[in-house]
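Recall the central idea of this unit: under ordinary conditions, the amino acid sequence of a chain determines the structure it adopts. In this exercise we apply that idea directly, starting from the sequence alone.
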Amino acid sequence: MYKDWSTENSPVGALFETSGKIDTERFRLSDGQVEFFNENGYLKGIRILDDAQVETLRGELAEMTDLADDERGLFYEYNSNESNDPSMVLFHALGAWRVRPGFHDLLWHPAFLVPASQLLGGAVRFWHDQLFCKPAHHGGEVIWHQDYSYWTRTKPMAHLTCWIGLDDSTRENGCVHYVPRSHKWNLLPREDFTRNMETIRDYLTADQLSEFQPVPIELKKGEASFHHPLMVHGSFANTSDRPRRAAVINVIRDGVWSDSDRPLQEKVAPIPRGEKLGGQFFPLLYDPNE
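Accordingly, the structure predicted from this sequence is:
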């Protein structure tokens, strides 16, 4: 019998330093790092996991790619292959925090929460998590997109994404690319993750096209990047002989409210329009004032 870990709105294990008062100074970003994020829309190379934590999460991830149908039902979304090309594979799932204790407790990891609070400018509340896995040799693409184009059912736009590598992430195995300062652009039309990489160009102004100069975000395993909800980003195919696996945590500043009377996540009860996000599925993770 499996457990739905979302019923636990606090850490359940000892994988991360989550007991007692957080040593915020140990994990704080410098003023220069915060300024870089505000100017460019992203920040990379933040150490989140040690090698032992990476190995634990890799083990849980391997289990989650081969689940019985009833346990898959805990995920908000579960796509063994979200690519339109069957010869290219993109495993993408939302809801790992409900399925395995390590991914559950990752949400409360202070190495993530302290920087997230600084970049959000307040208390950190959970929005949803993701898994992205590209196997060696035939890992699929993720087209250029802005995260908030998928999240307009929540307001105001006070969201943040943390992308955590479970492998070294390189150009060869399909690392994320960011378009610096694109977080200052308008909200672009939403597109399916698996359409043509260049579709976005149809929606850009002449000035935006001239500014469209992506940079590869190469990371060591256990390192993370943070990005703004309007940051244009995507990733190319994995043609290397190594996998590219990642855990993604999406959070909001406490106080964000529902702008829909429909469920904010699949299989989760609706939060009425105008009500602040909270409860079992949107727990408060960290308040720097407490």
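The chain has a mean pLDDT of 94.
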